[in-house]
Amino acid sequence: MGRLLSFLLCFSSFFISATLADWNILNQRTKSGLKITLKSYCESWRINVELHNIQDFTVVPEECVSYIGKYVASSQYQVDSERAIEECRLYLTTSCPLKKDGRDAWLFDIDDTLLSTVPYFKKHHFGGEKLNLTSLEGWMSRGKAPALEHSLKFFDELKSTGVQIFLVSSRREHLRSATIDNLVDVGYHGWTRLILRGPDDELNEVKQYKANVRKQLISNGLKPGTGIGHPGCIDVSILAARST
Ligand SMILES: *[C@@H]1O[C@H](CO)[C@@H](O)[C@H](O)[C@H]1NC(C)=O
């Protein structure tokens, strides 16, 4: 145990000095001349990913990998996650008065909304390496993703108000049974439909695919409140911004 611990400590201090060395070669001022630290640089990068100002990045910048690792393990991440759900509750009660006609619906994404992919990315350099879909899907197929605790609570509250719940994920069809097992295992049940990406949808961008599903549900007479497209309700973590 002692050996393992000192190995880990050596490893992490090596890692920190490596990233700091990388950092030193960067310009430590913004364009307008403001002084920035590594932390403020990475914080600003993360916020802009969450706001979708930065899109289609393939890897987390190397110098920010350790910042991201710390963020997802921090109480800040927990606070952010709880707040996102709180905003969903507020939206539900103020902006989408329920018709209570059995056709009210709520759309949930799955990854990093109901289930967390953090354990996967913890083993994969916190997004600092190019996403390997085979390996990510392998992890998903084992069905061990933990629930996001506040999402689970909100899911149950929604159910008790009689709102139909639709799960719309960019996961592919072959992951259907593993996804159901995983969801049920961690406490989600009672949704109306689980919509995954079929072969035709795979050609579409994730955003387009989700917009199509939403349109189709509406044309079938449902009245989706939100979920997809409501910034407070998705993308609790920057990892959700990856096109998985
Ligand atoms: C992606 O992951 C799979 C399964 O873990 C592995 O066999 C493959 O070599 C990986 N591909 C790359 C390019 O790393």
Overview of this protein structure:
- The chain is an alpha/beta fold.
- It has helices at 2-24, 38-50, 65-72, 75-95, 118-122, 133-141, 149-160, 176-186, 206-219; strands spanning 104-108, 164-172, 193-197, 223-224.
- It contains nine helices and four strands.
- Mean pLDDT is 78; it is low at 1-23 and 226-244.
- The two termini are 36 Å apart.
- It is globular.
- The chain has a single domain (20-241), classed as HAD superfamily/HAD-like (Rossmann fold, 3-Layer(aba) Sandwich).
- It has a four-stranded parallel sheet, sandwiched between helices.
- β2, α8 (176-186) and β3 form a beta-alpha-beta unit.
- Residues 132, 134-135, 138 line the site of 2-acetamido-2-deoxy-beta-D-glucopyranose.
Could you give a quick summary of the protein structure above?
By secondary structure, the chain is an alpha/beta fold.
Estimated radius of gyration: 20 Å
CATH homologous superfamily, by name? HAD superfamily/HAD-like
Number of domain modules: 1
Helix/strand/pairing category = alpha/beta
Second CATH tier, the architecture: 3-Layer(aba) Sandwich
State the helicity in percent bands. Answer: 40-55%
Count all strands and give the number.
4
Q: Say which molecules are bound, naming each kind only once.
A: 2-acetamido-2-deoxy-beta-D-glucopyranose
Quick check: average pLDDT? 78
Net shape: globular
CATH class: Alpha Beta
